[in-house]
């Protein structure tokens, strides 16, 4: 199992949000991290865990964790539950509109706990 | 006074239509389509006892068809308020000064009158033409009598009946086909030198004769009938020709032509043409500016137009004029394509090469029974016309090219069927008319793809109406659509998405015949990748229909679309709306109070839905279980307003209260809603039940509509509102409740199994091969032998139904999915903000939010206050 930590900024702190087995495979869950709303996904196939903004830039609502997980051309994706714009889960880039992206959050699993990197410097 | 002044004053004018044939039907249909029945009372007088029927298809009556099948439309046109059809009513006189007509022993006033009396079949002045056993070929009654005569004579004579048809034109060959179908030895007698002299040339007529003779029909050309003689029983027995020869004939059909029925016009002093026909201007107005003439009785631009197409155009012209328009009839394309005795015959444009200097390109294959001719301009570049006998496959492509350059090799267009005509589809100029019935150009078809987003033939047909009348251009329209889709880079593929190369129907069958019960098995065995927002919900729906699991059970949870995932409808701000089921729209006062209390407690915005229930808006995800606990405790269950599934069965109050009701529509609606609740389907399904023909439940706007009759229930299918509204079509009449339920069971289950994703019943019916007739055969006659299987599938759905919300509330694990934040399960989304409007709250818009963030004191409530 791998986790992503794709941001270039340095992670200064980790927020423990839940046990890994509390995440339903191929479904997201929202988490509050230092006042930010983050959407965390555990993939059923690879077991990878990804975290992106919970805020949907298209609709303005905080709903990304309720999106549909899938893949496009082999890339793991999440589609906004609002109007189905699809985002690359690993990078946060929108695959339907190159000018839009979700922030991608560092995430790791420690002792069965999911932790999100915060307080970037 | 103009029509508009009348309309604005609210007084309805009276329109009398004399004649109730195909053209009269089209006129009334066109008027109703345009809402003219709001300003006009329409009275139609027909001398036949039947409502308007399809005279062109008369011969099909011989293949044992019910004459009812020939009726145009479903009859609802004549039941509309403001439209009245008087059958068996001869109009004896028109009093133009008093603006009255005489019929049914009384007088009727009119403001405007339309003559649509059509024409008579003529009988030549031949001795004995009135003997018993002599017929014309014009009405259903003619055809019915002819049929009875042949059957009776066959029985009486104890041998094959010998039939003779006088006239070798279009109608004559139709009649010959009919006699042959009845088992008679048939001879066609034509005065001219060859068959169908008005449509084809000598060589074409020769080819036609060879084909017809091979079918066992005798043909005599250049032959004049001089008299008919009776046998000892007084019935026709022999036919004598001018050249002295004679043949035996037990039945004779005259098909020598038609004459306009203009005697009413003559007797009322309207101008009538020398060779018959009421003279009318391009607006179809006769010499009396209150009287129009349309169809075969009208003489416009110096001629009578003896085809139904031009008649329809005239009907549209008059409809437009009655509404204050200025449409004109500018002549018509007299091209024809027919199948006579199973033989294709078509002619178009200048088929007889009347243009000076024109050249003819001929392709003939006597062994195959094919003759084709193109008439080209003197430089061999421009197509002027042509005729096709034996194989008219090229007609659809060629007819629109009349007046245009065919390219370097015109003969290419004449090659046998199966050889692609050069440039068909792709090369057709935009302004060429493809569908002449509905006046649709190639450009409009292309535009439907490029600009209106149509991606298949059904969509283009719905959007442009091309190919929806006679259907002869459908193959051409399809070709245009395919070419355009390919050019637009839209692959014409039936694949569901990038993960599954099969259609939804195929995927359904895969799951049905296999043991597969999870998406991961399905995608591993039959697909690729991890799925997406298209195939996952499709799989969820199919698995639900076939395996009946809970939407949140195991892997199912990760397949559900936005709404199904939390069993509520996502709204623009990320909160949800909640809709408890209210079967048939019937709710107790206690139930209403309970819903109201929940709404008050959670500060939910409430609105009545179009499906006769109540929508509660603004529920946050973490509130859904508590809200549903209250609703379930009050006796409510999920309304599946979030699902591609049965929504509601709308009903009127019916017989129990209504003084017009003839059946108990409310009870039926409730029973149906409880039967089909929770059934997952390709798209949402809505039903309606009306307790009488007044149709207060708007059942014909539903996928399945039920309307009570004195004798039971009429079932309609394929209606919907939305982006492309459709009226449901009559599917079955006078069913008992049991028959009705079984028919709906099978109809819905067949739809669920075979429709495409997000395809509602109307487009599905269009896409099924054979259309609604084929579906009717499956449902009512079990033509595919799957009736018992469909019944069992529905029975198992009914048996296994459980309320999804009650099941969720009883499952602690499922309830955990409703946390707002996994690390703060009860904390509301802090970004939600509302303002009050008309005593309820709604999401704040951007400007209101800006003010809110700036801290101004407009009355904005944040969510934390709401729950307090």
Fill in the CATH topology of chain A: Rieske Iron-sulfur Protein
Distance between the termini of chain A: 27 Å
**What does the average pLDDT of chain B come to?**
87
Order of helices and strands of chain A: EEEEEEEEEE
Strand content of chain A: 35-45%
Number of domains of chain B: 6
Q: What's the CATH C level of the largest domain in chain B?
A: Alpha Beta
Largest sheet of chain B: 5 strands, parallel
Name the chain pair with the biggest interface and residue counts per chain: A-B, 38 and 34 residues
Q: In percent terms, what proportion of residues of chain B is strand?
A: 15-25%
CATH superfamily of chain A: Rieske [2Fe-2S] iron-sulphur domain
Summarize the structure.
By secondary structure, chain A is mainly beta. In chain A, 0% of the residues lie in helices and 42% in strands. Chain B has a 5-stranded parallel β-sheet. A 5-stranded parallel β-sheet of chain B has the order 9-16-10-11-12. In chain B, strands 22-23-26-25-24 form a 5-stranded antiparallel β-sheet.
Describe the structure.
The complex is a heterodimer of chains A (121) and B (868). Helices cover 0% and strands 42% of the residues of chain A. Chain A has strands at 13-19, 27-33, 36-42, 49-53, 68-72, 75-79, 86-88, 104-105, 107-110, 113-118. Chain A has a single domain (15-116), classed as Rieske [2Fe-2S] iron-sulphur domain (Rieske Iron-sulfur Protein), CATH 2.102.10. Chain A has 121 residues and is mainly beta. The radius of gyration of chain A is 13 Å and the shape is globular. Chain B has 868 residues and is α/β, with parallel strands linked by helices. Chain B has 6 domains: 3-120 and 260-322, FAD/NAD(P)-binding domain (3-Layer(bba) Sandwich), CATH 3.50.50.60; 134-256, FAD/NAD(P)-binding domain (3-Layer(bba) Sandwich); 333-424, Enolase-like, domain 1; 504-560, no CATH class; 644-800, 2-Layer Sandwich (Sulfite Reductase Hemoprotein, domain 1); 833-867, no CATH class. Chain B has a 5-stranded parallel β-sheet with strand order 3-2-1-7-19. A 5-stranded parallel β-sheet of chain B has the order 9-16-10-11-12. Chain B starts with a helix and ends with a helix. The A-B interface holds A 15, 17-18, 22-27, 29-32, 37, 40, 43-45, 59, 61-63, 66-74, 76-77, 79, 81-82, 84, 86 and B 498-499, 520, 529-533, 535-537, 555, 557-558, 561-562, 565-566, 570, 572-574, 621, 816-817, 819-824, 827, 829, 831.
